[in-house]
Every structure is written in C-alpha cells, then in structure tokens.
Design brief:
single chain; about 625 residues; mainly alpha; 28 helices; about 60% helix
C-alpha cells in the first residue's frame, strides 16, 4: 500500500469492472474542456450582473442573470461528456468546476462573508488568538473549542489580523476536501466507476444544506468522511461470516435464515492491501481524528458512533469496539472539558430525548412559517430531499433485484436517522441527519441509472432520466441553498455600520439588534453584552404598535442598561430581511422603526447609511 493510497484511498481497484481510460483522447476531451471552460468564463463574467439588492423572498435564484444559468448548464454538459468518455481526469475537472459554479456564487458573487454565524465564528477564533486561551464560561462554543483553536493557530501563524480571508472561501475549500474521501468511499463500495462518479456528482448538486461554511460542522463532516473512507477501505470484515451462523442465528431464532440469505447475496469488495504496521498507523489516525471531532462539535460524534455501530452490526467493520471507544471519548470530553456548560444546560439537552413528535415538529413544522416566498423555499427543500431519498431507495432495490445487495450502503444511508430521538438540535437535527446520509443516498441513487452488469452500456432512456434528474436538482439547488439570501448576505454599508458601532461604543456597553442576522461579533467577542432580540423574559417590543411615540418608548425601556452603562441599537438591511422572512411583525416593520427612532427624543443617531443605522439610548 503506497503512502498516497493510504491517505486518500485512490489506488486503482483490481476488481472486475469496466477498465476506464486514464487519458481522454479525441473529441470527448475537446468538447468537455470547451463546455466547462466556456461555462466558467461566462460564469465569471456574469457575477457582476447579479442584482443582490433586488432579491425577493425566493433568494439568490430570483436575481441570477441569464448568463449564470447558461454557464451552469454548460459546466453540467461538460460533466456529462466527461462521464460518458470514461476519463477520470476529466471527471475530476468536471466535479471541481461544478463546485466552483455552484458554491462559488456565495463566495465570489457577494461583497462580504455570508451568514451571521460565520462572523461570530471568526470572533471566537480571534478571541483565542488574542488571549492565547479559551474561557468556557463565555458560551457553549468555548467548551468545544477544537476547530476555533486550530483557526487561531492558522491565523497567527500566517500573520493575519483574523481568520476572515480564509473563512470567506470555506465553502469552496470544504467541498473540494469532501471530494477525496467521497471517491475513496465509492471505490470501497462499487467496482463500476460509472456509479462512483455519478454518485459523487449527485452529492454535490444535492448539498444545499449549507453546513459547509466556516464552522466546526463543515470540518467535522470532512473528518467523518475520512473515518468512513478508512474503515471501508482497510477494515472491512466479511458480511458472510457476520451473517452466517453462531450468535446471529441463536438470537434471531425462526428468522435466522434471513441473515444467511443476506450474507450470501451481499456484494463485497476486498480491502486494499496493507501491512500490520500500516493498519496500526491507520487506527491511530482514526483515534486522533475522532478526538478532534469530539473536541470541535457536539453532533458529529454521535453520527460517527451511529455509523460505525451500523458497520459493526452488519460485519463490515473489523474494529468492533470502535463505536464504544468513540462513545467513551465523547463522554469523557463532556464530563471534564465541557463540564462548565453542561452543569447549567444538562436538563435542556436531555429533555428532548425520546420525544420524537416534538423533534419532528421542531424540524419540519417549525420551519413552515414566515412569508409566502420563504414557505415555498422550505417546501422545495423538503421535496428535493424526499426526491433524493426515493430515487436512492429505488436504486438500492434495483441493485438488490439484480443480485447485488449492498448492505453497507443501506446501513450507512439510514444510520443517522435514530439520532432524531436524542435531540431536536435547535430544529436542525433533521438537516444534519440529511447531511450525514447524503453521500450514501447519492451513491444509491446513482445505482438506479447505471446497469447492474459492468460491461452493459447505459440505455438512452437511462441517460435521458439522468439528464432530467440532474437538471431538476441543479435548478432546485440554486433556490434551496440560497433561498434565505436576503438575510444571509451583507452589503458593505452594513458592515461599515457594525464597524462604526464598535468604534463608538465603550467597552461593556449593551448592544442590541432585533435579531442576529448581521455581521457582528467578529471582534471584541467578550467586550460587550450582546442582545440579538427585542424580546426577553416578560418584556417584548411590538414593532407593529401604531403609536410611534409609544413604540420608541417601549424600545427605550427594553434597552435600559444598569447605571453607568450605555446602550446602543443597530438596525440593518439584513435584520429587516429576517423579520420580513420569518416575522413575527409585518413586512417593513424595521424600516418603520428606523424612521421613528431617527426623530425620537429617546435616541440619538450616531451613524446611518442606506443599509445600516446606529442609535444610542439617551
């Protein structure tokens, strides 16, 4: 086993299958390069034509110029030609081009970093870099600081003021990183290269969930894929031995024949060659990566436990104690390193355990509210996810009927779903579960179109079906991923407003915003008291109040600081967009509030521009 194959698992398989050319020759190469190159050039030229200020509640898709749509179609066509040509070099180029034109829209097509949480994460890393330590009493992030400590180390080593220049490009970096373990996983599950490349491409055109921004989840998902790739490539057990006789038969009783049938029909690709010393190094790498995941994110370790347990149960993981080891590391971290946070939040974290109805309500019903446009986007996201799952189920059944029962693929595709009974995760548990199942759903979906026999070419109807599905998914992607862009992107004037707030507000001041959709906390993370709501405890400001004077008075009373402290309120374009999308006030309520406070005797205007206004409580 070479060093390169040990790291990324990209050594060519010697198993049966179509021998695809490593060098594309002739017209397929020329056509693919022309389509992808022309698409990228047109895409680059069309970025400046995106009218971000005119976005509707349908998000970025509502203002994309025709050139952007044409460029994405051209790149997709290039991928199709590359896939048909059998050239792996062209397919790598095509998938990387797809990553650029789909995920680069939010990176290169917008003036600043997307997502308020991204700016907050930059502030956490900046705090650690500045102080040289973590403070677990500040908030939950500092109890799982692995990702932020790494970011602080990188920014300090590179001599950067903060990690922002790198964080801005995180979606492109992370998705390019996901590509390597995804290919390795595909080669460990399938001999047919057509399934592998189509499955990888389907993953990227379905990855609308948006957890690939600068975040612990973005890096944690990559590390999760790496662990899965290593286990599937070098530590597979034999499903036939796991399902044959013995323990399984005695426990299952009358239905003991089913495991034996599954074992006989299960498809299996042998492990890549390795020596005992190399396997020891790989085990050490798994332990190190697992520890890094546990130290960085709360949810990912449980997805890893669930997936490794599923592989162990079906006999596809020889490291049978690995799930228990990961659980032990997770519990030890919670008991010792995250004890500060858990001591005050343990009841809140465990109250949802077993409450499946409440979790589903928070993850599905809780999202179906807001403006008409926003509700349409949510329904489109649910439909896109359901479509992938249905196609994946059909693909799995088609392969099973053809004599290729890939039980590992099935186990990994559904392994994260039991996590729904643990926690609603702030209404995002189903999103995270969809993310962790997506690679295996995508590979299974590819099986619906590629013939079971490796030497049988695809029919024209199958090619047409792939084309239709791909077109539908790409169009949906641009709305699913960027559907909330009215509040997720920040104009430069809005950032200028936040910078002005930091210059004018003394340390320990109280900083208010109506919600958290604005680019703040990227510096001075612990120097202020931040309030991203006009609702707290028994107090609530009703922005729909008709009397302007009474509304200004209510805001002033809500913001009243302790004696000797100052209070400031910032109103921005993006905070107004979130209010318009989600309520609870009427559309335009924050614009009205800005006009009222500008003439109110309770407030002094410190700064204003078209996209931001800063007020000080007199």
């Amino acid at each position: 086993m070479s060093v390169s194959s040990a790291v990324v698992g990209l050594a060519p398989s010697s198993a049966r299958g179509i021998q695809l050319s490593r060098k594309a020759v002739g017209w397929p190469t020329a056509i693919a390069i022309a389509l992808m190159g022309g698409g990228i050039v047109l895409w680059s030229l069309s970025l400046s034509a995106i009218a971000l200020s005119q976005m509707t509640d349908l998000g970025l898709g509502s203002v994309l110029p025709l050139g952007t749509w044409i460029s994405i179609v051209l790149v997709t066509g290039g991928c199709a030609v590359a896939w048909r040509s059998g050239s792996e070099t062209l397919m790598v180029t095509g998938i990387l081009s797809t990553i650029l034109v789909l995920f680069g829209l939010g990176v290169l097509g917008e003036p600043t970093m997307r997502f308020a949480t991204t700016w907050q994460h930059v502030g956490i890393a900046n705090y650690i870099a500045t102080h040289g330590s973590v403070n677990p009493n500040i908030d939950a992030y500092f109890n799982w600081p692995g990702f932020f400590s790494l970011s602080a180390f990188i920014s300090t080593s590179a001599g950067l003021k903060n990690i922002e220049p790198i964080a801005r490009a995180a979606p492109l970096f992370f998705n390019a990183m996901y590509f390597i373990p995804l290919v390795s996983i595909g080669r460990s599950l399938f001999a047919d290269r057509r399934v592998i490349w189509l499955g990888v491409w389907l993953f990227f055109v379905n990855n609308w969930i948006g957890q690939d921004y600068y975040s612990p989840q973005g890096l944690g998902f990559f590390m999760y894929l790496v662990v899965m790739a290593v286990l599937l490539r070098w530590f597979k057990g034999s499903p036939r031995s796991a399902f044959a006789t013995g323990t399984w038969s005695s426990r299952l009783g009358p239905v003991s024949r089913l495991p034996r049938i599954l074992g006989r029909r299960a498809t299996f690709i042998a492990d890549a060659p390795s020596t005992p010393s190399q396997r020891v190094l790989l085990i050490v790498a798994i332990v190190v990566i697992t520890t890094a995941i546990v130290a960085s994110h709360q949810f990912t370790p449980f997805a890893l436990i669930s997936s490794t347990a599923a592989l162990t149960v079906i006999g596809w993981c020889r490291l049978r104690t690995l799930p228990l080891g990961i659980l032990l590391i997770t519990l030890l971290w919670a008991a010792y390193m995250a004890a500060t946070y858990l001591s005050g939040h343990l009841h809140a974290l465990t109250s949802d355990v077993g409450a499946l109805n409440a979790t589903l309500s928070a993850n599905v019903g809780g999202r179906l509210h807001g403006s008409v446009g926003h509700e349409y986007i949510v329904k489109m996201r649910l439909a896109t996810t359901a479509l992938l799952w249905v196609v994946a189920a059909l693909g799995f059944l088609r392969r099973a009927r053809g004599g290729q029962l890939n039980i590992a693929l099935l186990a990994l595709a559904v392994s994260a779903f039991p996590l729904l009974v643990l926690q609603s995760y702030g209404g995002e548990a189903l999103l995270r579960i969809a993310l962790f199942s997506m690679p295996f759903m995508a590979f299974s979906a590819a099986c619906l179109f590629v013939p079971t026999a490796d030497d049988v070419p695809m029919s024209r109807s199958a090619l047409a079906a792939v084309a239709c599905l791909g077109l539908l998914l790409i169009v949906s992607f641009l709305f699913d991923r960027y559907g909330n862009e009215r509040m997720d992107y920040f104009p430069k004037d809005e950032l200028t407003g936040v910078q002005t707030l930091y210059r004018m507000a003394p340390a320990s001041s109280y900083l208010f915003a109506s919600n958290d959709s604005l680019p703040w906390r990227y510096e001075k993370y612990a120097d202020y008291y931040y309030y991203s709501s006009l609702t707290g405890g028994a107090s609530q400001v009703n922005l729909d109040l008709k009397d302007p004077h009474a509304l200004a008075r209510d805001v002033a009373v809500f913001m009243a600081p302790p004696r000797g402290k100052s209070s400031f309120l910032i109103i921005t374009k993006s905070t107004g967009a979130e209010s318009d999308l989600f309520g609870p006030w009427r559309p335009g309520a924050q614009d009205r509030l800005r006009r009222i406070l500008s003439v109110s005797p309770y407030f002094r205007v410190l700064y204003r521009n078209p996209d931001a206004a800063v007020f000080e409580l007199r």
